[in-house]
Design brief:
alpha+beta, 12-stranded mixed β-sheet, 12 helices, about 30% helix
Length: about 625
């Protein structure tokens, strides 16, 4: 039975290989220190944190996240280590909460590798603190125990590290926070939290591999059932694999027999509108896939750990080390590992079958803002009268399920700019693509992002500016320039760069001053009130120091007043600027023109492969949509 600890209580640890699972509701930094028998931490090299996540016997997350899994192998810790202290802190300078009193109480659980909870602790009573010592694992008389600590620090990460006895604690805290801010470039922002009434409606148990309890049933009334191929009904959900197409319970097939799971349907989430329900459903699928994959990986780790332990026992006994008995023991250990792995894979496959079936009915039902470019919904495109709540920037998938693509939806209005990386990353697709093709694909990708932003907003909602200093992207920019959606032809040369940046910088300054002074009615009457989208190609070519400073200013301050940046750049081209441009790269969401596994989810931090948007071969849908945008669409 799981022990639920209170502050100061301890509990024995029956295993040496453990997971420490942390849930906080908001992204937090998770780290750990190794201390001697007096609890003293020898130095920064004994601290595991996002910038240095691995130590002997200990590994922590590489980024801030709402959920963490810290791996601990007590048998592999340094001999001098007698204490492992688990630390949590709120990220600084990211726009998130500044104190734990404003977020849900953090929860920490120590589990075996098979997911069995040993003990848990809910950290209550926090208020102004922005850092907290959650738990400590300590060795006494050769046995390991855990203690619920819950010691908070209003002085934040620096105060907590200093209390651990670490010299130059402020410097280490800055290093950790810098690593977290750098991770923002690769993190997909979680949607705003939903209330219990707004959670996804699950029919029955949660996904089979997760091992968690079933959530409460959603009692929201069902939407009217469609008689077409896309069902918009809102029945309860089930974790078992769905029937095949055309079978009982699937759209187009006979009703499901009593006791059999109903088919997945589009809009199977709560919300005020169908768009909101689909948005919540897609994010629910994203979270489900992240968590069920994490459960599978944890189960595989457990199987491998168990096999290693059994093999160690065989090898430690001279009588069974050699001969037929040893061979039989080794074969039995491997067979047991294979059996556990196969069971975990079967559970994962059942979950993937459900999610795949759900994706098959959700994708055709998506509105223009969420739809892929090959979705038939684009052929009936009309300029909308109101902005959507989100926009699709591509797809995401994991290596365990490469064919199951989850739409990457980002909330609107954009809170940060976009950076399409035209450089050579370490992905297989980038390695197989030459530099010139990468740059062309990067501009093509940026054009598709810009076209979608224009297409999903009402007439006149966006004014688009383009900077192409060398005129090298004329071919890729032709759909925008030729359709008439640009405010002016692409700016070229240093003069063009300075002119566009100067106007937009002045606009941001005017609007910021007017808003902060409560004098928006004093803005010039000829000020363009539409949001501004600035597309910059081939940065930093054509930029002097002043232009670079202005671009950084637009990236930082522009989104709050409706000026958005879409940058196409190779970071290597800007290496001469050194760390001066680090804040610029961190402020932007990095996307790639070819598949690349650089994005992370906000729950368990998986590395997701990002698939950029692509037009179907020979399709004229982009020009058709842009021509309607330029004309304002039918009234």
């Amino acid at each position: 039975m799981t022990a639920e600890l209170v502050r100061g209580q301890n509990h024995p640890l029956p295993h040496t290989r453990l997971e420490i699972r942390v849930s906080a509701g908001e992204p937090v930094i998770a780290g750990a220190t190794l201390g001697d028998e007096n609890g003293t931490v020898a130095g920064a090299e004994w601290v595991a944190h996002p910038g240095s996540p691995a130590l002997p016997g200990l590994e922590v997350s590489r980024q801030a996240a709402a959920d963490h899994r810290l791996a601990v192998d007590l048998g592999a810790l340094p001999e001098a280590c007698h204490r492992v202290t688990v630390l949590l802190a709120l990220p600084a300078g990211t726009g998130g909460p500044a104190r734990f009193g404003t977020v849900a109480a953090p929860f920490a659980a120590v589990t075996a590798l098979d997911g069995t909870e040993v003990a848990s602790y809910t950290i209550t009573g926090l208020d102004t603190e922005s850092a907290v010592v959650a738990l400590e694992l300590y060795r006494r008389q050769g046995a390991w125990k855990m203690r619920a600590v819950g010691q908070g620090y209003a002085g934040g990460l620096t105060a907590m590290l200093a209390d651990q006895g670490i010299d130059r604690a402020a410097e280490l805290a800055d290093t950790i926070q810098e690593a977290v801010r750098a991770g923002l470039t690769r993190s997909v922002a979680a949607p705003p939290p939903r209330t219990a009434e707004g959670d996804r409606a699950r029919r029955g148990a949660s996904l089979t591999a997760s091992g968690g309890p079933a959530p409460a049933a959603d009692t929201a009334p069902a939407a009217p059932v469609s008689t077409g191929p896309i069902s918009y009904a809102h029945p309860r959900r089930d974790a078992t694999a769905p029937p095949p197409p055309g079978a009982a319970g699937r759209p187009g097939g006979p009703p499901a027999p009593p006791g059999q799971p109903a088919a997945p349907v589009a809009g199977d989430a709560t919300g005020w509108s169908m768009d909101e329900r689909l948005y919540n459903q897609v994010w629910g699928m994203f979270e489900d896939l992240a968590r069920t994959t994490a459960a599978y990986r944890s189960a595989v780790d457990f199987a491998e750990s168990r096999m290693d332990q059994e093999l160690d026992r065989v090898l430690s006994d001279p009588r069974s080390r050699i001969g037929s008995a040893g061979d039989a023991a080794r074969e039995a250990a491997r067979a047991k590992s294979d059996e556990l792995t196969a069971r975990a894979r079967a559970a994962l496959d059942r979950d993937l079958a459900q999610l795949t079936a759900e994706a098959e009915v959700v994708e055709p039902a998506l509105p223009v803002a969420y739809a892929d470019w090959d979705n038939p919904v684009w052929h009936g495109y009309r300029v909308p009268t109101e902005a959507p709540m989100a926009v699709r920037l591509g797809d995401l998938h994991l290596p365990e399920s490469p064919d199951l693509r989850i739409p990457m939806l980002v909330r609107l209005p954009l809170e940060r700019g976009l950076w399409v990386d035209s450089g050579r990353s370490g992905s297989e697709a980038a390695v197989l693509t030459d530099d010139a093709e990468l740059r062309r694909l990067a501009v093509d990708t940026a054009v598709l992002h810009a076209a979608r932003l224009l297409a999903v907003h009402p007439r006149g909602a966006y004014t688009v500016h383009v900077i192409d200093p060398a005129g090298s992207a004329a071919g890729s920019l032709a759909p925008l320039a030729g359709s008439g959606v640009l405010a002016a032809p692409p700016a070229v040369g240093a003069g063009g760069v300075a002119s566009v940046l100067g106007r937009l910088t002045q606009r941001v300054e005017l609007v910021r001053m007017a808003v902060s002074g409560g004098a928006t009615d004093a803005l010039p009457p000829d000020l363009d009130t539409a949001d501004q989208l600035l597309i910059v190609n081939d940065f930093p070519h054509g930029f002097d120091d002043r232009a670079v400073t202005q671009l950084r200013y637009l990236a930082d301050e522009g989104p709050a007043v409706g000026v958005h940046l879409l940058l196409v750049a190779d970071r290597e081209d800007a290496r001469d600027y050194g760390p001066v441009l680090d804040p610029l790269w961190r402020s932007l969401l990095r996307l790639t023109p070819v598949p690349d596994d650089h994005l992370a989810d906000p729950w368990v931090g998986h590395a997701w492969t990002y698939e950029p948007p692509r037009l179907p071969a020979g399709s004229g849908i982009l020009r058709q949509v842009l021509s309607q945008v330029a004309a304002g669409g039918p009234r």
